[in-house]
Amino acid sequence: MGGLTYSTLRLREEGGAWFAQLHRPDAGNALNTAMVRELTDVLARAAASSATVLVLEGLPEVFCFGADFGAIADAARAGGVTAADPEPLFELLRHLAYADLLTVAHVRGKANAGGVGIVAACDIVIADEGATFSLSELLFGLIPAVVLPFLIRRTGFQHAHYLAGTTQTVDAERARAWGLVDACGADSEALLRAHLKRLSRLSKPAVARYKAYLRQLSPMPEQTKSAALATNREVFEDPMNVRAIQRYAEEGLFPWETAPQPGPPDPVTGTAPATPAFTPASTPASTSAFTPEELGSPRFRAAHGVTRAYVAGAMYKGIASVELVTAMGRAGMLAFLGTGGLSPKAVDEALGRIRGELDAGQPYGANLLSSPQDPELEARLVELYLDHGVRCVEASAYIQPSLPLVRYRLAGLSRGEGGEVRERHRVIAKVSRTEVAERFLRPAPPELVRRLLDAGHITRGQADLARRVPLASDLCVEADSAGHTDAQNAYVLMPAMSELRDRVTREEGYAEPVLLGAAGGIGTPQAALAAFMLGADFVVTGSVNQCTVEAGTSDAVKDILQDLGVHDTDYAPAGDMFEVGARMQVARKGLLFPARAQKLYELYLRHDSLDDLDARTRATLEQKYFGRPLDTVWQETRAHLARRFPDRLAEIERNPKQKMAQVFRWYFVHSTRLALAGRPEHRVDYQIHCGPALGAFNAWVRGTPLASWRQRHVAAVADHLMRETAALLGRTLGARTGTSYDTAK
Fold first, then answer.
1. Regarding beta strands 17-22 and 9-14, do their DSSP bridges make them parallel or antiparallel, or are they unpaired?
2. pTM of this prediction?
3. What is the set of active-site residues?
4. Among 259, 302, 582, 659, which residue's CB has the most CB atoms within a 10 Å radius?
5. What is the DSSP annotation of 71-111?
6. CA distances from 492 to 170, 477, 488 (A)
7. Is the pLDDT of residue 280 over 60?
8. What is the pLDDT of residue 345?
9. Mean pLDDT score of the chain, rounded to an integer?
């Protein structure tokens, strides 16, 4: 051992044992890259020497406190890499468990997070009776991914799960009972010496053969390592987690805590009292705290099996992708697959992937778009939803209830043992007009119920129960939003919908009222809090989710979206309802699509056929809008109509204005494809559905890791938005009442 010196360790040798003391007193003995590297080197040298034992010790007050939050905070401030490569730590723990010598952990004081991993990987653990053990990772959104395989190997699954899930600190005696500690007492030094005395009798070859045999008895599979490393990288790269770590390192505040506000000035000195930089986690809040889980309706959370009254709404063409839906589901929140514009085959495959990636009970849903021009498509989607066991659909663009929608809702009804109605299928209807909302608040139309019963799609019992429940279990009240919108004002719309809901509940005699959600314009805590204060039982986001890693659109679109401001959207004609002048909200910054779409609609109003267009206008359309002759566009459109709507083709060909409308519609389909593909040469023609909520979100996160969409994960965005909304609620009530509403619950 002579000549070996390290910056984070103190080494000594006694007989056949090597001693390595973790020595970073100024950093709480936290693990950093240097310490992991130096421990690995010492372990390799000891295993190659004649030593039979390597003893790892910490300081009297702390064994090892885990990852170096200070270093992570420094890297975050400097804009550097905040996530250290977890593989060296995993390999260190594996070598501690399987190296050709016996490893002993002598624990005094605190062992936390990665420190528990070192303890768990050692062959023998001696602890002082005052030692404590904890896994604090989940408090910061992290997961002890590298630690758990070695901890489970020692304690079994449930004890490790309890320690990680509760983040509680356990003492040495309980750790001994669980198998993490082998021996503990008031004089751990004496215990260690007694153990070393017995271990000194062992020969090096015997220990080496013994450890080699243990490697065969309980190997660490490579898939375990792969999962641990991938999970570790994911959570340490999450910008919300990095922000929580940085805040803790700089302010001593946990993610749920708010900074103490200075009290009134001292009447003598005129100065405000000093505020402490750190509030211990064990200090109880002075009054009730607000958490993200407490926002909105408990009934909504229970009905949908979610942790928060927050929904990621559907975005067409699979922009609300499988990845987006599953990420939200794994986080305990509801998201809807964007099925609009997808073929039934694509929807079938997507639902199969979602079911395969989510555990039983994890929430998800799918969009059901009104298709009056193609009722067979709507019926086919409902068949798929029933086959896949989809428990919730987002019904959008409906003016009247349809037969497939009613079938989905009623096919999930059953009678409980007490005669109550059980609702397996929930419908969240997106509405922006009160007359449409009332149709969903009432029971399903009797004539549709009769048709379903006659067709054998529902039972007699379900038909009877249909009179006792509203068609929609929840209403999503949609104000000024992305895509199709009536441009309604949420401050007017929500109270009107609430009054309507309450009136219909009384008239129909429902046991419970339909739940109301708020959508449109929600991209900041202030907007979300306003929605809850207006009576929303849940909130629904859309535009902010389109600019996340998981969204199923091109990087080029996301690059545009992350730079939008609140005034960078506009209204344009909607391609799917082109002839009736329906409008939708889209991004306009740097794009010509809104102006070109409006020009096409104006031409449609002024002319009766394509032949009426003057030569200059026709050339402009062909060269700048369509990029090909209008006759070619019509041939492509005709082929599509012949496949999808053969019964309508002859009528369209006989009507020049309808033919013109179909040709103009081609531009809307084309512009969507360009955006989804991210074709740079056609950037100005991208059709990007987006509301001003994203501009507000962009302004809110400017200067933070979330400023870049590449750091925006959909579940992290939801978590950040709801946490800050809860904190804002506490601050707002405190300011209004003079009461301190601490959010450290």
1. antiparallel
2. 0.63
3. 68, 137
4. 659
5. HHHHHHHHT---S--SHHHHHHHHHHHHSSSEEEEEE-SEE
6. 53, 11, 8
7. no
8. 96
9. 89
